[in-house]
Design a protein that fits this description.
The protein has 639 residues and is α+β, with helices and mostly antiparallel strands. The chain contains 19 helices and 26 strands. A hairpin with a 2-residue loop joins strand 9 and strand 10. Bound molecules: ligand BES and zinc ion. InterPro entries: Aminopeptidase_N-like_N, Aminopeptidase_N-like_N_sf, ARM-type_fold, LTA4H_cat, M1_LTA-4_hydro/amino_C_sf, M1_LTA4H, Peptidase_M1, Peptidase_M1_C. It is an enzyme of class 3 (hydrolase).
Length: 639
Amino acid sequence: MRFALPLLLATVSTAACTPTLEAQAPAAAQAERLVAPILTTPDAVDSATFARPQVARVTHVDLDLALDFERKRVAGTATLDVLARADAGEIVLDSNGLVIDRVTDGQGRALAFEVGDRVEGKGEPVTVSLRTDEGQARQVVIHYAANPQANALQWLAPEQTAGGEHPFLFSQGQAILNRSWIPTQDSPGIRQTWRARITAPEPLDVVMSGVAQGEPEALGNGRRAFTFLMDKPVPPYLIAIAAGDIDFRAIGPRTGVWAEPEVLDRAHHEVADTEDMVEAAEELYGPYRWGRYDMIVLPPAFPYGGMENPVMTFLTPTFIAGDRSLTGLVAHELAHSWSGNLVTNAVWGDGWLNEGVTSYFENRIVEAIYGEKRARQEVALDYMAILDTLEEVGRDAPGTALHHPEGTDSAGSAIVYNKGAAFLRTLEREVGRERFDAWLRQWFDNHAFQPATSNMIYEDMRTNLARNAAEAERLMLREWIFEPGLPANVAKPDPAAFAAVDAASAAYAGQATIPAAATWRGWTSAERQRFLRQVPRDRTAQQLAALDRQLGLAATGNNEELFLWLDLALANRYAPAVPQAESFLAEVGRAKFVRPLFVTLMGEGDWGQAIARRIYAETRPGYHAVTRGSVDRVLGWEE
Ligand code: BES
Ligand code: ZN
């Protein structure tokens, strides 16, 4: 279904934009809450949820939870506002290991509920009866606890923090992990507003992906209560929490950063360009609609580089290089405030709508803040990754299409992120920046706070970007979105972007000439990464030692470069690098670094496999479920 009106936020009383649901008289407190529409076309049906939102859906979540670090338990209540068809009778929620004690309606009367069979990777449905003596319940209150093994949550021991004294907790919701700690309908197409009251032991602070309401309240029992509100409907994967010994420092009037006190100086210095980035982003694609833009730099166990939790981006500390060379990460998470958080993929098979559009937008912010040279180099690195993936899986592999129909997987992030971005870059080149930017801005505006699908953006491009049918053909829109490989009109990266490095790579491959230390230091990080990726894979120990000596690879403070060095070293069974690889893997939980290092080790026969198994036995307990899951598969590890 397509919606004609640009503004599709309605109060509950005018929820007619969800036509199959009966608009019910709102309770007083609900009256002004915004309800986003649900898409009803087959391509918008999310197979990863048990919910049946056309029958009954959650519109608002109110959490009242206590954090218990000793027992690794989050427990309390979730009060859900429900919009249901008159004949619904029940509502289906998602769970993954939640321990549900009882369910009541808003007045405290018991409601029957049933936990269904577990489906691997998806969790289990919780079906709650809405039947009461006075008609259908409009609120359900779930009294529950999350399992200590909840896969969204990571409880860090003090040793895993910079301070070493206090425990730490963070959540990671995307894609379908939040059902392990929040009993709601966990689907990106079912947007919900939310509020939370969280209690935590002193002196820990709590942050969430919503706006803090007032100061924390001391409860007199060694605990404090923190309240947060998200009054804009968001997909539930964007509800996030972190708690630890953290401090805040402002950057600009609406930007700031949280981190452990030990990390805050370095973190603050690294993200100092953030306020300018927000301004640049607004200049490009319209107002930032979320109020504040704050970030938290988490302990290194965080499994991703970054996560675009609204008003509170979560970041790995491994992007801190001291010279802001890896802050494309911040630009990326910020860009999600439009692509992903404002306009959201309705199903995970259309993840390129979030990640591909964001990667394009990220590069435009990088260009605005750091200039064309850095932006072009990052484009060229991304393009190389697309070609690598196509080479690896084949140009006709279905997973290389941007849109993945239900039940099929993408061939990896180079497709979803980089091919997605290359598509938009191609459109920009074809129609010109001015027209392209106007189109993308109207896409964000017209679909703000709503879900979207590949079919919707395809139709939108045909009507609002292409001037006529002939131009639509020339843009190759259908090929780009629905077909594998790389369409013929792809905008190629600037061949001169890496001229200097590529000459140096050739000299190294040919005459074993290592770049001079001063040359190396004068390069951008993208240039150094390009060089490291181009080092021939068959190095002797002597050659590796010479490279390290001249370029200071093992001593670099740039983790992207350190990762490439360690990977190169391990791929050549270079024993002197093993202890450092081991300490890196013990400290850093970022799957993008951890998994490939284990893959490399596992490819190095008995030598590498023995090292991989030994290291993993030590480091596995310190990894988030996301990282554990991905490395378990590499090592064939069974719990
Ligand atoms: N939203 C993603 C992280 C994510 C994707 C989590 C899919 C779960 C499922 C985030 O915005 C992201 O893309 N992070 C990248 C940043 C990079 C591309 C700049 C990362 O973590 O490396
Ligand atoms: Zn992203």
